[in-house]
Amino acid sequence: MFKVFLVEDENVVREGIRKNILWEQYGFHYTGDASDGELALPMIRKIQPDLLITDIKMPFMDGLSLIELVRKELPKTKIVIISGYDDFLYAQQAIRMGVDQYLLKPIIKEKLVEILIGLHEKMLEERRQQEYIESFKREAQEYENFSRRRFFEQIVTGGMSVSEISETAKNLNIDINAPFYNIVLFSLSSAEYDGSVPETYTENLVKVQEDVTNYIIDHPDLIFFRWNITTYAVLVKGSNEDIVERNTRDCIENIKNRCISAGQDIGWYIASGTPVSRLGAIPACFSEASRILSYRYLCPEEHILSEASIMNLRKRSNSTKTGEGNKEIDPAHVRKFLSSGTEKEIDDFVEQILQNSGNEFASLSMFYRYLKMTVYFAAIEYLDSIGCRVDSLLSTEYRPDDSASTIDDARQYMYQVIRQTIELRDRESAKQQHDILRKAIDFIDNCYSDAGISLDKVAKNVNISPNYLSAIFSQEVGQTLTEYITYKRIDEAKRLLRQTDKRLSEIAAEVGYKDPRYFSFVFRKVTGCTPSDYRRGMNSER
User: At 232, phi and psi to the nearest 5?
Assistant: First the structure.
């Protein structure tokens, strides 16, 4: 049902229209009326009718003034004007303002019914088109996320000017402009996630990912990006620094609550930067949040990380350093980083190890040799645990020696060993990714005609996380999974259109679209022409 509201100053006319039309029979719900524009406006703002029927000449606020305000505030509302013969100039002006129909007094019931029937059909078609667009957007969401991720990478690495950021944001339909910004980063994975194998599908993880994503999407001051397979970023906006800080706290609190409700089998960590007042300062804000988040490997018990938690870690560490024998790092922390850390985080992690050792040890070459040995044997142990050959780490290039060591030497050595270990881990993972992608593509090729096929359904079939599948699919195939499904369907539809006499509805059903109109909508989006035009050889395919 579409909501209709009437504005008419003549009581007899108003009563006649309200009582003599079987509104619901024609698809409308009569929501109210008023005698002039001034009384009607607050009611219209509250009801937000789909159709407004209004007289032109009224006291206090006439129809033209009302139409002007409604057009600005409710641009999708259809408007029918009621006018007398001597109001023709007003009617012309109203038509220029975008009214949909003109109804002449005295009101003839049959004419009003004719207008209502025509508008109802038009409004239904527009609603269907909007639903098609929303459906297409939902199906394209995976691609949008891929585009947004690349956009976000360019922002935080300083790869775009402010004007380029604004222009790209506009093209992606992202409202990025604000006086102040902050970055919230959060890591979300299964508790036992190991980067050497694809993350398996678990209902609990999928649910918390969806819950967090939906929360962020529902808040216009939060802009959601995916940073990598397990890490997400939220760009927080606000009109001043206080609002950004409050929005940041609310965002962290809501993510925390959703993660806690998921239970012990979900691993999660959250960190944020310090608010900045310029788009150009976002890279520094991101760098701060990223540095703080990378402390999750040294503070695994701290789920919400901050500068305060880092200082507490250092205090605890320094309080135990009563002699050289206590200056230790936990190999388990190193192995945890090797299992799920990324190459971009290595620098921060190495610096954390060095800073956590305390500046008072900066001249102790023996301690830095100890750090090198600890990282080396942790790497050997981790690679052995995942069944990965360690030949390269056994070479002279990577084996630690007993020569004098400095802090710079230790830093460079640890970076090299950790990077090599992560490369070997990722190589091991890539072998399994290839097999999974092949299975995923085979499943799609066999089931694309299933109207219910989706990223989640494919991920469940090959038993990996939907986010993981989405990331590796776009990276390896060059298309998002949803794009691949869509183009597979449209390619088959083109073959059927050219080689068979099947009706469009039959072809739509065969390639996985329940609604023939939606099939036509997607076909035109992809090829640039309608299915009928394609069949006739009028192909304007892009």
Answer: -120, 155
| Distance (Å, whole) CA 467 – CA 214 | 15
130, 155, 249 from 237: Cα distances, Å: 29, 15, 12
Residue 248's Cβ-count burial label (10 Å; 0-12, 13-18, 19+) is: buried
- Contact yes or no for 455/470 (Cβ under 8 A): yes
Structure confidence by residue, pLDDT tens digits, 117-176: 999 988 888 887 777 666 665 555 554 566 777 888 888 888 888 889 988 888 888 889
Measure the CA–CA gap between 341 and 195, rounded to whole angstroms.
Answer: 8
Cα separation, 531 vs 494, whole angstroms: 8
Q: In what side-by-side order are the strands of the sheet with 180-190?
A: 222-226, 231-238, 180-190, 266-272
Integer Cα distance of 122 and 129 in angstroms: 11
Closest among 140, 139, 164, 163 to 151, alpha carbons compared = 164
Q: 487-537: per-residue pLDDT in tens?
A: 999 999 999 999 999 999 999 999 999 888 889 988 988 899 999 999 988
Give the model confidence (pLDDT) of 334-350 as tens digits: 999 999 899 989 998 99
Alpha carbons 123 and 508: distance in angstroms, whole number: 24
- pTM flag (> 0.90): no
Contact in structure between 268 and 244 (CB atoms under 8 Å): no
Topology of the domain comprising 143-319: Alpha-Beta Plaits (3.30.70)
CATH class given for the domain over 2-138: alpha beta
Domain residue ranges of the chain, discontinuous segments joined by +: 2-138, 143-319
Q: In what order do the strands lie in the sheet with 51-55?
A: 28-34, 2-7, 51-55, 78-83, 101-104
Task: Extract the runs of DSSP E, i.e. beta strands, from 35-83.
Answer: 51-55, 78-83
Q: Which of 57, 60, 26 minimizes the C-alpha distance to 40?
A: 60
- Bond preceding residue 106 cis, omega within 30 of 0: yes
Collapsing DSSP to helix, strand or coil, 377 comes out as helix
Assigned token pair, 374: 């600890």
| Partners of 269 in beta bridges | 187
The number of residues making up the chain comes to 542
**Same topology for domains 2-138 and 143-319, yes or no?**
no
Own/partner pairs, 526-531, CB within 8 angstroms, 24+ separation: 526/486, 526/487, 526/490, 527/490, 527/494, 531/493, 531/497, 531/504, 531/507
β-strand partners of 92: none
Distance CA 410, CA 515 (A): 64
Q: In whole angstroms, how far apart are CA 282 and each of 84, 238, 342?
A: 60, 14, 21
Distance separating alpha carbons of residues 154 and 414, to the nearest angstrom: 28
Cα 79 from Cα 81, distance rounded (Å): 6
